[in-house]
Amino acid sequence: MSVYLIEAVRFNATGDRVEMVRWGRGHRKGNGSPGWEATMVEQDVSLVVDALHFGDEVATAFKAGEELVLGPRVHIVCHEHGIEDIDTIDHDVPGRMLSDLPRF
After folding, report:
1. What string of DSSP letters covers 41-96?
2. 34: which DSSP letter?
3. pTM for the complete prediction?
């Protein structure tokens, strides 16, 4: 199982679904300091949905200075017509939802 980190999102024109994410496979810093590192790429949200279906863990990641700080994990949600999307699991963490991530 891998851990992926989402650091930015792109919503559709109406702002109700995530279309793309900037994400990467996360790993602990190699120098022993606390925090995470990841090489980020921009990809369609369907790849996040696939990773979740395969059992990988996906979480939000917020910048705190130069560090990546883990935010809430994401899960699959279904919209009308069976369209699968993602959302944060914990909705009551102020400032730590998908809509709080940077946009690209």
Report:
1. EEEEHHHHHHHHHTT-EEEEEEEETTEEEEEEEEEEEE-GGG-EEEEES-TTSTT-
2. S
3. 0.90
DSSP strand pairing (41-44 vs 36-37): unpaired
Burial class (CB in 10 A: 0-12, 13-18, 19+), 8: middle
Q: How many domains does the chain have?
A: 1
22 token code pair: 């900037």
Q: Domain residues for 28?
A: 3-100
Quick: pLDDT tens for 18-57: 999 999 998 887 776 667 788 999 999 999 999 999 999 9
